[in-house]
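Supplementary Text 2. Reproducibility record for the structural model of the 171-residue chain.

All settings were left at their defaults, and a single model was retained for analysis rather than an ensemble. We include the record here because the model underlies the residue-level annotations in Supplementary Table 4.
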Amino acid sequence: MSNTRIACASDDVTGYRQPDPWAAQIALQYKRLMPWVNTQAVEAAYSIIRAYSMLDGAVTEFLQPFGLTRPRFSVLRAIYLAPDRRLTMSEIGRETRATPTNATKLIEGLEQGGWVMRVASPSDRRVVYAEFTPAGEARFADLLPQFIKLHETVWGHFNAEEAAQVHSVLA
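Retained model, structure tokens:
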């Protein structure tokens, strides 16, 4: 599992957030070219970009041994959390923000990997559900706690107030 951590205020012994030197450098470079630039806004944007990049890298590295991508994992998560552990293609699109074409391609890949299967609705032949195969559901049930631990490793050092602030700002 990755050792990636997202920096937070509690990382500094004084209790104050230290600016991201990379983001600050970019902001100053912009300011030299365009004196009107709001350096705080640029620093914030680039700090978010860097945090996302770190988190994305950790998630990608974690999912790779399972043969999964982030979008495929998102589909599996949506199906796993659904009340009947099955979703229609349109529900998958809505839950994962995938287009109908992308949702279909994601399901095709997950079918090939033995994670899910398509099942026709008994009441409406036009409706097709994606649901776990027995092996896929067992694999996902093993994978999900590990995935949560990854997030705890990356974000767990935030105190409750910092976590609430991050959520509030990014929501």
